[in-house]
Amino acid sequence: MKKIKTFLSKIFKRREQLSLTYNWKATLTKPGTRKYDGIGNLLDPGEIIEIIEGPNLIVTVGKAFLGNMLIDLDAQHNTGITYCALGSDNTAPAVGQTQLVNEGGGPAMRKAVTTKTQAIAPNTNQFTWSTFFTAGESTLAIEEAGMFGSSTAGAVVNSGIMFSRWLVSINNVGALSDITIDWILTIG
Fold this sequence. Notes:
2 helices
C-alpha cells in the first residue's frame, strides 16, 4: 500500500485549495476623536473605548455575488462590496438570509464603505472594508451588521445584495461612541 501511495504522489501534483477567512472588528471610540481626511484615510485613531471582534457568515447570495463578480457577469456585479448596514435583531445568521433581519434606524444605519484597503505579504492577501459611523449616526442598540454590494446597493434600507451578516452587541442608544466597522477577508 505504501508503494502505491508513493507512486501516486509522484504522478499527481498536490492541488492547492482556495481558503477564505473572514472576520469583523468594531472599534468604539470617544465621539469626535477619530479623524479622517477628505478621502477616507485615517489620520488619528482617536480615543479607543473598546474593540470587539468575531466571525461572520458569508450567505448564499453573497457567494453567488462573488462568483458573478469574478466572471464579470454584468454591470450590476462589477462594483464590489460598497455598503455596511447595522440592525437591531439578534436572530442567528443563516446562509439563506438575503438582508438584515431588522435594519433598524432607517437609512442612517447604512453607509457607504469609508475605505477599502489591501495588505499583501508572502502567501497572504488581506482585504479590509472599513465603515465609520459617528455617534449621532449610530444611536441604536446594535445587534447585527452586514456588508452589501452590487450596483443596486445604496443608502436605501435593504438595498443591494447582502454578502455577509454577523451578530454584534453594541448599545449606542445614548450616542456614547463613534463606531468603525472593519470587515476583513483573507484569501490564503
